[in-house]
C-alpha cells in the first residue's frame, strides 16, 4: 500500500513546500527514510521519500546534479530537503535539475521534524491497509451472495466494483461468459485473449489496450484437473496483495459454481448408463429403466444405436466418456454404456453417419485407430435391443480406424460376417463344390471361376463373360459342365443362392492349379 507525494504535500501540519519536479508529484511512496550519505543510491530500492539536511551534499553544482540524478535513477519518490540548519535555502541548481527530471524536491522547514513526516506517511499507509481489509471483508459476502443469486455475471459485476476494474470471465475454449463493465470495443477482448497465455494457471502482464498501458491479471478457474476457463481483471495498475485475496475468493466461488452442474451431469450420466445397461441385459421387468430412456428418442419416438468395439478392452471406459462429452457439447441427452466388449451409444433417430463420424474424430489418435463403429437404422424406442444388435453387426463389417458402417449398407454381407454361420457355409461348400474343384485341378477348366462370375452377374451372360475376359459361348459351355457335375439346375433361384453363399464362404474362387 502506498501514498503519493501529492498527498504528503497536502498535510498542512507538516508545512512542506514543493520547490521543484512538480510533474512527479504522483509518484508513490512506500517508505520514508533519512540519510546523510554522499551516495545513498546503493541502499535504495525505489519508491522511497528520502529526507536529508544536506550535510554531505556535494559542493559543486555538477556534483549536486549527479547526486539528484542518481536518486532518480534508483526510482525514489522524491527528496525532502531540510532548510535552516546546514543550508538556509534549497540550492537553485538542485531546483533546476529537479524540474528537468521530474523528481519532486520538497523543502522541509526547520520546525518540521523528519519523524513527523515518517509518522504521517506510516500512519496513512496503515489506514489504507486497514481500509483495504475492511473493503475485502465487506466485498466477500457480496461475492458469495452474487454467485448464489446470479452466477458468473453477478460475480463479475461485484468483483469489478470491489476492484474498480474490468472483470472478464472466459470459458475453457476462450468464449466470454461474463464481462463487467462491457468493453466499448470488441477488439479489446481479442487483445485480452492474446495477453493470457494458454496453459498458465495464474499471472500478471502489461499490455497496451486502447493506446494505454494496462495491467492484466488472470487466474485459471479449475477444480482438480478439470478447467473451466479464466478469471481476468483489467486495470490501470497491478493488483495489491489484498486485491489478490479478493480475486482468489471470487475464483473459488466460480469454480464451485461451474463444477456444480458438472457434478450433476456426471450423476445423470451414470444413471442413464445404468438404465441403458439394464435394458440391454435385463431378464426381469425393467420398466423404470425404459422410462428413463424416453428423452433420447426424437419426437416420433425413434432412435438409432451405435456400437463401438475395440481390441483394447481397457480403453472402453475412456471411449465412453469421450462419446458422452461430444453428446453433451452438441446438446443431446447422454445415453452411453461401456460394456465388456463394446460401447453402446443411443441417439435420436434423426442423426446419421455424419454424427457417428464426428464421434470417431473426437477420440484420441490411438483409440481412433483401434475402433470399429457400426450404426443401426432407425428404430422405435421399444425396439432398442434390435437396434443395438444391428449396430453391433454393422461394426463387425467396419474396418478398424475406418469410417462407420450403417447396418442398411451391409446387405448381402451380414450372414457371412457371423463366424459360426461362415463355418457352416464353408463346410457345406467343401462338399457341394468338390466336383468342380476336382475338375479344375485336373483339367484347368475354370469352372469355379466361371460359376462365381455367372452368379455374381445374376445370370447375365455378357456381363459375366466380360468380367472373365472370355467369349460368352465359352462361358455357356463351362456353366453347362458345372450343372452336369453338380447335378443341379441353375435356373432355380434357390440353387443359385446356395451356390453363391458357398462360393463366398470359401472366398477364393480359383482353386490351386497343379504344376
TrEMBL record:
It comes from the Bacteria. It holds the Pfam family PucR. Residues 447-505 form the PucR C-terminal helix-turn-helix domain. Residues 8-125 form the Purine catabolism PurC-like domain. This is Purine catabolism regulator. It comes from Mycolicibacterium fluoranthenivorans. The lineage of its organism: Bacteria, Bacillati, Actinomycetota, Actinomycetes, Mycobacteriales.
Amino acid at each position: 500500500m502506498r501514498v503519493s507525494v501529492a498527498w504528503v504535500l497536502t498535510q498542512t501540519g507538516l508545512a512542506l513546500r514543493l520547490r521543484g519536479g512538480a510533474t512527479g508529484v504522483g509518484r508513490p511512496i512506500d517508505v520514508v527514510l533519512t540519510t546523510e550519505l554522499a551516495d545513498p543510491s546503493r541502499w535504495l530500492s525505489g519508491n522511497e521519500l528520502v529526507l536529508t539536511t544536506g550535510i554531505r551534499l556535494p559542493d559543486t553544482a555538477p556534483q549536486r546534479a549527479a547526486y539528484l540524478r542518481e536518486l532518480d535513477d534508483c526510482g525514489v519518490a522524491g527528496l525532502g530537503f531540510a532548510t535552516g540548519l546546514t543550508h538556509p535555502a534549497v540550492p537553485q541548481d538542485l531546483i533546476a535539475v529537479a524540474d528537468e527530471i521530474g523528481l519532486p524536491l520538497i523543502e522541509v522547514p526547520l520546525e518540521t521534524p523528519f519523524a513527523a513526516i515518517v509518522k504521517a506517511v506510516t500512519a496513512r499507509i496503515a489506514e489504507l491497509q486497514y481500509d483495504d481489509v475492511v473493503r475485502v471483508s465487506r466485498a466477500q459476502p457480496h461475492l458469495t451472495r452474487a454467485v448464489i443469486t446470479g452466477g458468473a455475471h453477478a460475480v463479475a459485476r461485484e468483483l469489478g466494483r470491489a476492484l474498480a476494474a474490468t472483470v472478464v470471465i472466459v470459458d475453457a475454449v476462450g468464449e466470454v461468459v461474463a464481462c463487467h463493465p462491457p468493453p466499448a470495443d470488441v477488439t479489446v477482448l481479442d487483445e485480452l485473449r492474446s495477453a493470457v497465455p494458454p496453459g498458465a494457471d495464474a499471472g500478471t502482464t502489461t499490455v497496451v489496450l486502447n493506446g494505454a498501458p494496462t495491467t492484466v491479471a488472470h487466474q485459471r478457474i479449475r477444480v482438480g484437473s478439470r478447467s473451466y476457463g479464466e478469471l481476468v481483471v483489467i486495470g490501470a495498475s497491478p493488483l495489491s496483495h489484498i486485491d489478490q485475496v479478493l480475486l482468489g475468493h471470487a475464483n473459488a466461488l466460480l469454480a464451485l459454481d461451474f463444477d456444480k452442474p458438472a457434478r450433476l451431469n456426471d450423476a445423470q450420466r451414470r444413471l442413464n448408463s445404468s438404465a441403458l445397461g439394464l435394458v440391454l441385459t435385463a431378464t426381469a421387468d425393467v420398466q423404470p429403466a425404459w422410462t428413463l430412456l424416453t428423452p433420447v428418442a426424437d419426437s416420433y419416438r425413434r432412435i438409432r444405436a451405435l456400437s463401438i468395439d475395440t481390441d483394447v478392452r481397457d480403453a472402453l471406459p475412456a471411449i465412453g466418456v469421450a462419446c458422452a462429452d461430444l453428446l453433451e457439447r452438441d446438446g443431446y441427452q447422454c445415453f452411453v454404456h461401456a460394456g465388456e466388449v463394446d460401447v453402446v451409444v443411443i441417439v435420436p433417430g434423426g442423426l446419421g453417419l455424419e454424427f457417428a463420424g464426428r464421434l470417431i474424430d473426437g477420440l484420441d489418435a490411438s483409440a481412433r485407430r483401434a475402433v470399429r463403429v457400426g450404426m443401426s437404422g432407425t428404430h422405435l424406442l421399444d425396439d432398442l435391443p434390435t437396434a443395438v444388435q444391428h449396430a453391433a453387426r454393422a461394426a463387425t463389417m467396419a474396418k478398424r480406424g475406418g469410417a462407420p458402417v450403417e447396418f442398411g449398407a451391409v446387405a448381402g454381407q451380414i450372414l457371412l460376417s457371423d463366424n459360426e454361420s461362415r463355418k457352416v457355409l464353408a463346410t457345406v461348400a467343401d462338399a457341394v463344390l468338390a466336383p468342380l474343384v476336382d475338375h479344375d485341378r485336373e483339367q484347368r477348366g475354370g469352372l469355379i471361376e466361371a460359376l462365381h462370375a455367372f452368379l455374381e452377374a445374376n445370370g447375365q451372360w455378357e456381363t459375366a463373360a466380360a468380367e472373365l475376359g472370355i467369349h460368352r459361348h465359352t462361358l455357356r459351355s463351362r456353366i453347362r459342365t458345372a450343372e452336369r457335375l453338380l447335378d443341379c439346375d441353375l435356373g432355380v433361384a434357390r440353387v443359385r443362392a446356395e451356390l453363391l453363399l458357398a462360393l463366398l464362404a470359401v472366398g477364393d474362387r480359383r482353386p490351386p492349379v497343379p504344376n
